[in-house]
Write a structure and sequence with these properties.
alpha/beta; 2-enoyl-CoA Hydratase, Chain A, domain 1; 2 domains; seven-stranded mixed β-sheet; globular
């Protein structure tokens, strides 16, 4: 972790720094000359590091989880595709306007089974981030996703999507090409798609940009990912005209995986390696792969495509349920 760290990670960084100092060749040579065995001290510090990490990462606030979901080293869609699937072949273009590199996708093999994979890609360095628009897709990106989804339906391939975006593109170009209509179109068409759809929110699940890929039969969230109708900064700017209150907005938005599970927006939470997915991408990829295979097995057990679509429809209908009470009923419950 040594380098840029979040405020809540500073206690962890301090212990890691001590461990690195003791493990450095110079320090080991000095200890050897003095006849000192550093192994016991290093082991003690590593145990302390584990305790500190457990304490910190098991008690993250919504805003701290937001920061972790945006971590610069967090694995992106292409990282997971490389680790989980075989023979991925990327397809480009929406056949209407252009190719949006914020959306990546194509056929791949999952444990000998052909599937279609679509994901959002933010980019690592500044050039790639600009090229991919930081993972915020324009209309052509969502239309590319729909083209690939229909291809999956045509060839009877399950569709697997990975969501990781702060939101859809909101610039003039996006509006000119109809990004809102493209997202709405995806909501309708994905809900009617005649093939299993499995969604995994791997980082940020922001607003309509996320929903354009997030309609499915089974939706999972990584432990430290987020899912919300708007970014905390955007919410704070609208409610209080003050982006610095993003932490307050994050708490009010109920954007954590546990919040989403409690209200039925997702189906399960995938545990991350201690410290976040970026600390052990291989283990995180194995967890996602296991979840994908389990979900596919359950969806394969459905007797027909019609039942698959009806089950998906009922799942969507259950979202947003609420109970309405009259003032008199509230008073009687209080009494």
């Amino acid at each position: 972790m040594i380098g840029d760290v979040f405020d809540f990670e500073k206690p962890i960084a301090e212990v890691e720094t001590l461990i690195q100092e003791l493990k450095s060749p110079q320090r080991r040579e000095e200890a050897l000359r003095e006849g000192i065995d550093l192994s016991a001290k290093i082991a003690e510090l590593e145990e302390e590091l584990h305790r500190v990490m457990v304490r910190v990462y098991k008690n993250l606030s919504p805003w701290e989880k937001t920061q972790l979901a945006r971590h610069k080293d967090r694995p992106y869609s292409l990282d997971y595709i490389r680790l989980i699937f075989d023979d991925f072949f990327e397809l480009n273009g929406d056949r209407l306007a252009a190719n949006d590199e914020a959306i990546v996708g194509g056929p791949a093999i999952l444990e000998s089974r052909p599937v279609m994979v679509i994901g959002q890609q933010k980019g690592r360095d500044i050039k790639e981030r600009q090229r991919r628009n930081f993972g915020s897709a324009h209309a052509e990106g969502f239309r590319k996703a729909l083209r690939l989804a229909r291809m999956a339906e045509r060839f009877h391939m399950p569709l697997i999507t990975m969501v990781d975006t702060a939101g859809a593109a909101a610039d003039l170009h996006a509006e000119e090409l109809g990004v809102s209509e493209a997202i709405a179109h995806n909501l309708r068409e994905f809900s009617l798609l005649k093939t299993p759809i499995i969604v995994t929110i791997i980082g940020e699940g922001g607003s309509g940009g996320a929903l354009g890929l997030a309609i499915g039969d089974h939706v999972s969230m990584l432990e430290h990912s987020i899912y919300s109708v708007i970014s905390p900064e955007g919410c704070a700017a609208i409610l209080w005209h003050d982006k610095s209150r993003a932490s307050d907005a994050a708490k009010s938005l109920c954007l954590t995986a546990s919040n989403a599970l409690s209200i039925g927006v997702i189906d399960n939470i995938l545990p991350e390696p201690l410290g976040g997915a970026h600390r052990d991408p291989v283990t995180m990829a194995e967890t996602i792969k296991t979840s994908l295979l389990s979900s596919l097995n359950k969806l394969d057990s459905l007797p027909s495509v019609d039942i698959l679509i009806e089950t998906r429809y009922q799942r969507l209908r259950r979202m947003g349920e609420y109970v309405e009470r009259t003032p008199s009923e509230e008073d009687s419950n209080d009494g």
